[in-house]
Amino acid sequence: MMQTRNLAILVALLALAILAPFVVYPVFLMKALCFAIFACAFNLLIGYVGLLSFGHAAYFGGSAYIAAHVAKVWGWPIELAILSGVAVAAILGLMFGALAIRRQGIYFAMVTLALAQMVFFLAVQAKFTGGEDGIQAVPRKVLFGFIDISNEFTFYYVVLVIFLAAFALIYRIVHSPFGQVLKAIRENEPRTISLGYRVNHYKLLAFVLSASLAGLAGSTKVFVTQLASLTDVQWQMSGEVVLMTLVGGLGTLFGPVVGAFVVITMQNYLSGFGEWVLVIQGVIFVIVVLSFRRGIVGEIAAWWKARRNGAP
Amino acid sequence: MKLKYGLAGFAGMVLAAGAANAQISDNVIKIGVLNDQSGLYADITGQGSVLAARMAAEDVGKIGNTTVEIVFADHQNKPDVGSTVVRQWIDQDKVDAIADVPTSSVALAVQQITKEKKRLFLMSGPASSDLTGKACSPYGFHFAYDTYMLAIGTGTALTKSGGDTWFFLTADYAFGHALERDAGEAVKAAGGKVVGAVRHPLNTSDFSSFLLQAQNSKAKIIGLANAGGDTINSIKQAAEFGIVAGGQRLAGLLVFVTDVHALGLKTAQGLVVTESFYWDMNDETRKFSKRFFDKHGKQPSMVQAGVYSGVAHYLKAVKAAGTDDPDKVAAEMRKTPVNDFFTKNAAIRADGRIMRDAYLWQVKAPAESKGAWDYYKLVATIPAEQAARPLKDGGCDLVK
Question: Of A50, A111, B224, B345, whose CA is between 20 and 30 Å from B310?
Answer without folding.
Answer: B224
